[in-house]
Design brief:
This protein is α+β, with helices and mostly antiparallel strands. The protein folds into three domains: about 5-90, ACT domain (Alpha-Beta Plaits), CATH 3.30.70; about 100-380, Phenylalanine Hydroxylase, CATH 1.10.800.10; about 405-435. The chain is built from 16 helices and 15 strands. The strands form five sheets. A five-stranded antiparallel beta sheet has the order 2-3-1-4-5, with helices on one face. It has a four-stranded mixed beta sheet with strand order 11-10-13-12. Strands 6-8 form a two-stranded antiparallel sheet.
Length: about 425
């Protein structure tokens, strides 16, 4: 085994039996440890760190399996390779997502006291039932279809009709082009809530993105990690009927009317995945930076079209009040001051905090979605702390760390094959033009 992978830093929950449980995992995978050293955490008393050295006879594959076992079964909170570089655990294949989708920060039935549905037991029970369906979902299975009640469909209808009146005027060109395709292929209409499976099937065909049900709010790291595999985690429950135009957390209205349409646009899909790939193995500080980019672009981004501002961010496209406000700079009630508009500069946006309980006081504007894609790509390649690069394989839905000459040579061959293909195609186009 390479010396680069002989040492691990394991973060364990501070509870009785945690160390024994993790050591048993190494034994289960036939891995011998030559050193175990405790390292109290400087950040939290809730966890404890252990530095372990692995016998050089252990294979990298066995070590990876042991780490995955510890993480997925809750025996360790974090595992890092130590040596010439640090390489933390992160999902390497799309099915690895099955683990963290169960680790939601807030489940569907757990509502804060100020939530519109907090005192409605029937609503809370309904949300819990829908959330439990998501908890049991695994990659590759059909997404369960929810039989929405008339009350739920009515809530959807109120929001749908209000927003679709505004889209022609305030949504970006790509959104208005794609929306009829979702009406035709995914059942988008006022009368009933679309099913995630239908949306998923269409997205897979056009950009390769998948929808996956989730029980509630994921951590920022887990949500972004999913984007690396072109997986978008979506709730299936809907906001409370008493406040159809307000929700304190993402619901099926936000996930479908806000996000799904734009994920069918190639540029939007690509920079969504770029942020996701950058999140794999990223430091906590870099996760915070990527979350801010996500917020200012994918949630509240504006684009210039013929000297007018149009929305492409999901937070705007699913909020009729802020959709109009962001594009016109005017609040209908005259209570909110005009917002500030800035050209999108990723290095600036990544460090800028934002409010979550009221309209944004500032919006970043891009010249086009393609330019946004290039700006985000430049940021993720040059402005993060990560010391390694990952590559996504769309054929196997896996990611690989480019950490050896052999992998780089293989990548070079792929690039050369594509260049040869382009050269051949250009030659045929030129020949065809000469014959006309």
């Amino acid at each position: 085994m390479s010396s680069k992978y002989r040492s691990l830093l394991i973060t364990l929950p501070h509870r009785v039996g945690a160390l024994k449980s993790s050591l048993d995992t190494f034994s289960k995978h036939n891995i011998n440890l030559t050193k175990i050293e405790s390292k109290p955490s400087k950040i939290s008393t809730r966890v404890f760190n252990f530095h372990v050295d692995i016998d050089e006879q252990a294979s990298k594959e066995d070590v990876d399996s042991a780490i995955k076992d510890m993480i997925e079964n809750g025996k360790a909170e974090k595992v890092k390779f130590l040596g010439g570089e640090e390489l933390p655990w992160f999902p390497r294949k799309i099915s690895d997502i099955d683990f963290f989708t169960r680790q939601t920060l807030e489940a569907g039935g757990d509502l804060e006291s100020d939530h519109p549905g907090f005192h409605d037991k029937e609503y809370r029970d309904r949300r819990k039932m829908i959330s439990d369906i998501a908890i049991n979902y695994k990659h590759g299975e059909p997404i369960p279809r929810i039989q929405y009640t008339q009350n739920e469909n009515n809530t959807w209808k109120v929001v749908y009709e209000k927003l679709t009146e505004l889209y022609p005027k305030y949504a970006c060109e790509q959104y208005n082009y794609l929306f009829p395709l979702f009406q035709e292929n995914c059942g988008f209409r006022a009368e009933n809530i679309p099913q995630l499976q239908d949306v998923n099937d269409f997205l897979v065909e056009v950009t390769g993105f998948r929808y996956r049900p989730v029980a509630g709010l994921l951590s920022a790291r887990d949500f972004l990690n999913g984007l690396a595999f072109r997986v978008f985690h979506s709730t299936q429950y809907i906001r409370h009927h008493s406040s159809p135009f307000y929700t304190p957390e993402p619901d099926v209205v936000h996930e479908l009317l806000g996000h799904s349409i734009m994920l069918a646009d190639p540029d939007f899909a690509e920079f969504s995945q770029q942020i996701g790939l950058a999140s794999l193995g990223a430091s906590d500080a870099d996760i915070d930076r990527l979350v801010r980019l996500y917020w200012y672009c994918l949630e509240f981004g504006l684009v210039k079209e013929n000297n007018e501002l149009k929305a492409y961010g999901a937070g705007l496209l699913s909020s009729f009040g802020e959709l109009e406000f962001s594009c016109t700079g005017k609040d209908r009630n005259g209570k909110v001051p005009p917002p500030e508009y800035r050209n999108f500069v990723p290095t600036e946006a990544a460090e800028r905090s934002y409010p979550i309980t009221h309209y944004q006081p500032m919006y970043y504007v891009v010249d086009s979605l393609e330019s946004c894609k290039e700006l985000i790509k430049g940021f993720t390649m040059n402005n993060l702390e990560k010391e390694f690069v990952v590559k996504y394989n769309p054929y196997t839905n896996t990611v690989d760390v480019l950490d050896s000459e052999a992998k780089l040579i293989a990548l070079t061959k792929t690039v050369q094959n594509n260049l040869d293909l382009i050269s051949t195609a250009l030659g045929k186009l030129k020949k065809s033009a000469e014959m006309e």
